[in-house]
Amino acid sequence: MIILGIDPGSRITGYGLISKQGNRLIHLDNGAIFTQSAKEFPERLAKIYSGLSVIIDEFKPDAVAVENVFLAKNAQSALKLGQARGAAIVAAVSAGLPVFEYTALQVKQAVVGTGRAEKVQVQQMIKALLNLPEIAQEDASDSLAVAICHAHSSAMNAIRMRA
Asked: Where does residue 95 rank: exposed (0-12), middle (13-18), buried (19+ CB within 10 A)?
């Protein structure tokens, strides 16, 4: 199973791709889609959508996992973040992919074993779990964590979908 993890953001949207083969997790790719803050916001959303669409076309994931962010510095930031999440989700759904959402607490619990883990601890575990030569860029690292969370949760999700 190939999983695309997404850490949505209006300025930087991280993505990470892993393959789950039995109990093994294999790193396929990671990176970030950068938008220019000088551009109109709808153009930035279009870049997120088109960038993720290209990644989906190239890697053909079986599932998409998105961080469900509910904290923001202010209302305007929350709205923009929600719209960036929407662009990412629409890219996945338009490709016919199932989308799964996880909170930061769930992601940290799945990757480190505790929901109170610091960002550095999560990054170190991702490096170790995926045998990466170095810690990935912050947004890409967060998206890999979301993908790993889904890999660990996929059996339970399959049971829920059948019920």
From this structure: middle
> Catalytic: 67?
yes
Catalytic, 29? Answer no
Nearest to 111 by CA among 140, 150, 82: 150
Q: What is the pLDDT of residue 72?
A: 60
Distances (CA, A) of 32 to 5, 12, 35, 126, 138: 11, 6, 10, 16, 9
For 34-62, the pLDDT digits (tens) are 999 899 999 999 999 999 999 999 999 99
Q: Tell me phi and psi for residue 108, to 5 degrees.
A: -60, -40
Q: Of 136, 60, 55, which Cα lies nearest the Cα of 88?
A: 55
**Catalytic residue from among 67, 101, 118, 142:** 67
Residue 117 pLDDT > 70: yes
Contacts of 126 (CB under 8 A, 6+ apart): 111, 132, 135, 136, 141, 144, 145, 148
